[in-house]
Amino acid sequence: MKMTVDFEECLKDSPRFRAALEEVEGDVAELELKLDKLVKLCIAMIDTGKAFCVANKQFMNGIRDLAQYSSNDAVVETSLTKFSDSLQEMINFHTILFDQTQRSIKAQLQNFVKEDLRKFKDAKKQFEKVSEEKENALVKNAQVQRNKQHEVEEATNILTATRKCFRHIALDYVLQINVLQSKRRSEILKSMLSFMYAHLAFFHQGYDLFSELGPYMKDLGAQLDRLVVDAAKEKREMEQKHSTIQQKDFSSDDSKLEYNVDAANGIVMEGYLFKRASNAFKTWNRRWFSIQNNQLVYQKKFKDNPTVVVEDLRLCTVKHCEDIERRFCFEVVSPTKSCMLQADSEKLRQAWIKAVQTSIATAYREKGDESEKLDKKSSPSTGSLDSGNESKEKLLKGESALQRVQCIPGNASCCDCGLADPRWASINLGITLCIECSGIHRSLGVHFSKVRSLTLDTWEPELLKLMCELGNDVINQVYEAKVEKMGIKKPQPGQRQEKEAYIRAKYVERKFVDKYSISSSPSEQEKKIASKSCEEKRLSISKLGPGDQVRASAQSSVKSNDSGIQQSSDDGRESLPSTVSANSLYEPEGERHGSSVFLDSKHFNPGLQLYRASYEKNLPKMAEALAHGADVNWANSEENKATPLIQAVLGGSLVTCEFLLQNGANVNQRDIQGRGPLHHATVLGHTGQVCLFLKRGANQHATDEEGKDPLSIAVEAANADIVTLLRLARMNEEMRESEGLYGQPGDETYQDIFRDFSQMASNNPEKLNRFQQDSQKF
Questions:
Q1: What does the alpha-carbon distance between residue 441 and residue 449 come to, in Å, rounded to a whole number?
Q2: Residues 539-777, CATH architecture
């Protein structure tokens, strides 16, 4: 090496040695500056490269967004997706290159500067210190007088020791210099070679990637040439069509007719009309009108939902209007309102009047044909009202929640301590409580008891029905079944600690539940009756068409339970409509309930007990199953993984659904076919249940295995009420999302409509059944 220092010169400490040291030290100092500068430039290069990768990734994401936007063009979408994937690979290669650069240049050279150069500096400091000490010893030894023997010996000894130390330190220093001079070459070359190999790998990877992409790019170039030729051809054709249309005569009224008869879309006629507003100013606004599905509707913009002017053209008339100043006016009159419209010409007015009259005649013909068919297929009522329950319903209407709930047997006193006139309730248990016991119930947590005031809180109709279905006597027969056998006395009012212990043992630990009271299996007689009933259903249903099968099985399920006892309909249960056009989604219930789960099971677990009771609309049995530890979301693997909530839907009881939801049932849990409770309620036309599930947060965007969501099912079934509810809920959801009102219930109109449906489903379910039938007729 050029700067190597000789060990012999080190021992002599000659001027040549000192000059060599000075030159080496200057060279090392300059080397440190150069390496520091190179490391800083490497760091800047890596940071800039990472920023480039970030920007490149954003650009690549932009290409992917453009590819997704072009999903209707397969060529563009495929090409952009393939290009973005290749760019992503190049970004990955860049990232690997920068990581290798950081390891080879930054980390390796920094380590050389911090470790090897630091050792050199430490050795230099020690050498300079001992060199100075040697010079001082030489001076002191020279100044000692010969007659002072003691001082001469002392100076001689110090000089000897100092020289020895100097030689040792100087040799180490020279060794450190020679090692550094030798190592600097290998460290610098090794780091740079690693850096260059990283570049070599980067460019090889890029070459290989684009070599594979090359044939595709070549084919795409050929397609692009053809696309250019086709685009030029299409341009010439459009220019020719433009020239032809320009030469037409637009002076006649015939050219202004903007209607189109399209039977496939159900649009009889459409076009612009002026509509007179119903406000005090009687302003006229130009809107796009259309006659479709026996309705007259209009919209301001294409994306707006159509506004219905006349819901049923069979109930309206149309006439000329010559008694106002504006020309070409006509009026569409319905039993509830009239709509004044103006066409652009007399010919167009006559066309609209004729279209309305034709639609009215067509609607009457279709009505007559369907009425004749329905008369031939008419079936008896799905159930009669029990006279006792009917009188009780009339008695309770208009009374407060407190009066209604306290009418139930046992509810006039607290369920847990017996205190009279309780003013609180546990809505998931269906019991009444005094204020002290209600506080203890709150401390249990809502997964055990949900407390509500009978006087201070508002009560939904379905929740009030639920409270009237259960009651203290029913629940205590389950949760206090072993109290007398165990010799335990119920706590008295005022015994706070005893109450807490008793209530926790009763509802949390369930110590007083008789674990052997639950039915382990159906009796042989019940099996025979159920089997025979199911077989008769299958024989009768197999002779009907698909729509009639669903209707027949629904009627039989409403008429009788497992014991053959007729059910009353005053609890908000909904019978099936006379027809279900979405029957392809559903198997007949007669076949479904003939499965081995109901007839052949030898040991019923609590989940299965809850599952059966949910279909039977038997709330006491359901409460008993929950007390025995039934999972409210238990899925029956033998019946498409249906849940108790789905069974409650099939059973047609709104109150049963409410009871399961209050006890933690998952409103969005779906069966093996991807259908949740909302799907089943929509298929069966149970409007009240659809309303309930939407209020409880059901996901109406979920699709089943056929890709159908509840709205598409309701539209296919022509169920106007359910379509209305689903669309309202969807609009309300979109409005809340657009306005950022997450967690808010919605506007007052939305709440009022759902409140009306809830009241009707609970108190007048027959009206919803009638609406369902009407919607299917039309």
A1: 6
A2: Alpha Horseshoe (1.25)
For residue 507, give the DSSP letter.
I
- Nearest Cα residue to 625 out of 614, 638, 639, 641: 614
Q: pLDDT (tens digit, 9 = 90+) per residue, 395-444?
A: 334 357 788 888 888 889 999 888 888 989 999 999 999 988 888 898 88
Structure tokens at 570: 């005053």
Answer for the pair 708, 717: CB distance below 8 angstroms, yes or no. no
Residue 644 to residue 646: CA distance in whole angstroms = 5
d(CA 619, CA 430): 10
Name the one residue in this structure whose structure tokens are 């606004």.
285
Give CATH for domain 7-239. 1.20.1270.60
Cα–Cα distance list, 274 to 270, 292, 294 (Å) = 13, 19, 21
Residue (of 699, 701, 618, 721) closest to 660 by Cα position: 618
Tell whether pTM > 0.70. Answer: no
Q: What is the CA radius of gyration of the chain?
A: 45
Written as one letter, the residue type at 210 is: F
Residue with tokens 């238990």: 634
Among residues 45, 760, 130, the alpha carbon closest in space to that of 461 is found at: 760
Residues of the chain with CATH 1.25.40.20: 539-777
Residues carrying CATH 1.20.1270.60, the chain: 7-239
Is 256 in contact with 348 (CB distance < 8 Å)?
yes
CA distances from 762 to 461, 573, 757, 768 (A): 6, 8, 9, 10
In total, the chain counts a number of residues equal to: 778
Q: Considering the domain 260-376, what is its CATH architecture?
A: Roll (2.30)
Name every residue whose Cβ is closer than 8 Å to that of residue 708 and which is 6 or more positions away in sequence: 585
CA distances from 498 to 48, 336, 340, 425, 489 (A): 73, 65, 75, 20, 10
Do 329 and 236 meet the contact criterion of CB atoms below 8 Å apart?
Answer: no
Please list the ranges in the chain whose pLDDT falls under 70.
1-9, 11-12, 248-266, 335, 363-399, 516-604, 735-752, 761-778
Write out the two tokens for 388.
């006792």
Element (H, E) at 119: helix 108-143
**C-beta separation of 730 from 699 below 8 A:** no
Look at the block and give the residue holding tokens 């005031």: 453
242 CB-contact burial (10 Å; exposed 0-12 / middle 13-18 / buried 19+): exposed
Strand partners, 453: 424
Residue 415 and residue 431 in contact, taking contact as beta carbons nearer than 8 Å: yes
Taken in order 536, 542, 544, 547, is the CA torsion positive or negative? positive
CA distances from 745 to 17, 139, 446, 695, 748 (A): 92, 99, 21, 9, 9
**Distance (Å, rounded) from C-alpha 66 to C-alpha 355?**
45
Dump pLDDT digits (tens) for 54-103: 999 999 999 999 999 998 888 899 999 999 999 999 999 999 999 999 88
Residue 395 CB partners (closer than 8 Å, separation 6+): none
Amino acid at 257: L
The CATH 2.30.29.30 domain(s) of the chain lie at: 260-376
What's domain 387-508's architecture? Answer: Orthogonal Bundle (1.10)
In DSSP notation, 328-361 reads SEEEEE-SS-EEEEE-SSHHHHHHHHHHHHHHHH
- CATH 1.10.220.150 location in the chain: 387-508
A 10 A CB-CB count for 285 gives: 11
CA separation (Å) from 319 to 50, 283, 331?
75, 21, 5
- Helix 748-763 to helix 687-695 angle (10° resolution) is 140
